[in-house]
């Protein structure tokens, strides 16, 4: 009852605060935490997988033993037959049980919940020097020569990442689609890949405001309009 009361109070606070303000975003994150705690109390204990909540991730212990996955934390193979592993139900971040205490990346779904917007500049590169020659996510040293670690650019953010945070995953980049009608998948970081996957069905792009000229060149858009 106390949790439900706190959730309702949090909802009222969110509605009362200025839209898109930092205080409102913080309140939304708090609401997510409260709902996760309530769900944990509802989940039956013995028949369900173990649950771990870390940095807004909701990790479930996996039962599958035959699947071979890659750990998002240490970038090595998860051997289901002999190792325990967890998957976040929000962003599908996977890792060994031994890597759980080392997880430092917050769940992307929380960002989608209170900051549902795209980067609309095409690969906005600022250079490795602006990153102090460090990975944009984990801050490990990187360079274009691959010493000590290869710097890989994310086509969505324009930033450089180490090989542990950027696995050369491919994704359609919204800015290229909007400005160039280009749907060719580009290499993006793991974090960007998850964010784009969770955002893909959200109606957040006002195309007639962003690029109204596109309607003159793409017949399908005219039909949709």
From TrEMBL:
SMART domains per record: C1, DUF4206
| InterPro entries found in the cross-reference section | C1-like_sf, DEF8, DEF8_C1, PKC_DAG/PE, RH_dom
| Segments forming domain Phorbol-ester/DAG-type | 56-107
Q: Which segment of the chain is annotated as a signal peptide?
A: none
Q: Which PROSITE patterns match?
A: ZF_DAG_PE_1, ZF_DAG_PE_2
Q: What keywords sit in the KW lines?
A: Metal-binding, Repeat, Zinc, Zinc-finger
SUPFAM superfamilies per the UniProt record, alphabetical: Cysteine-rich domain (SSF57889)
Family statement:
Belongs to the DEF8 family.
Q: What does this protein do?
A: Positively regulates lysosome peripheral distribution and ruffled border formation in osteoclasts. Involved in bone resorption.
Designated name of the protein: DEFI8 protein
Gene name of this polypeptide: Def8
């Amino acid at each position: 009852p106390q949790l439900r009361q706190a959730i309702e109070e949090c909802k009222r606070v969110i509605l009362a605060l200025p839209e898109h303000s930092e205080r409102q975003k913080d309140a939304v994150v708090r609401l997510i935490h409260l709902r996760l705690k309530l769900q944990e109390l509802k989940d039956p204990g013995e028949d369900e997988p173990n649950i771990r909540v870390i940095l807004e991730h909701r990790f479930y212990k996996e039962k599958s033993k035959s699947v071979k996955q890659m750990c998002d934390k240490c970038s090595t193979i998860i051997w289901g037959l002999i190792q325990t592993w967890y998957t976040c139900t929000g962003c599908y971040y996977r890792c060994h049980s031994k890597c759980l205490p080392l997880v430092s990346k917050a769940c992307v779904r929380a960002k989608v919940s209170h900051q549902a917007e795209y980067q609309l500049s095409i690969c906005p590169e600022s250079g490795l020097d602006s990153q102090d020659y460090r990975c944009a996510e984990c801050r490990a040293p990187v360079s274009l020569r691959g010493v000590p670690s290869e710097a890989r650019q994310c086509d969505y953010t324009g930033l450089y990442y180490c090989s542990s945070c950027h696995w050369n995953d491919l994704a359609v980049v919204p800015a290229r689609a909007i400005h160039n009608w280009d749907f060719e998948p580009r290499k993006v970081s793991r974090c960007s890949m998850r964010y784009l996957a969770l955002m893909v069905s959200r109606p957040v792009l006002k195309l007639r405001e962003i690029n109204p000229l596109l309607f003159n060149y793409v017949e399908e858009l005219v039909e949709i309009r």
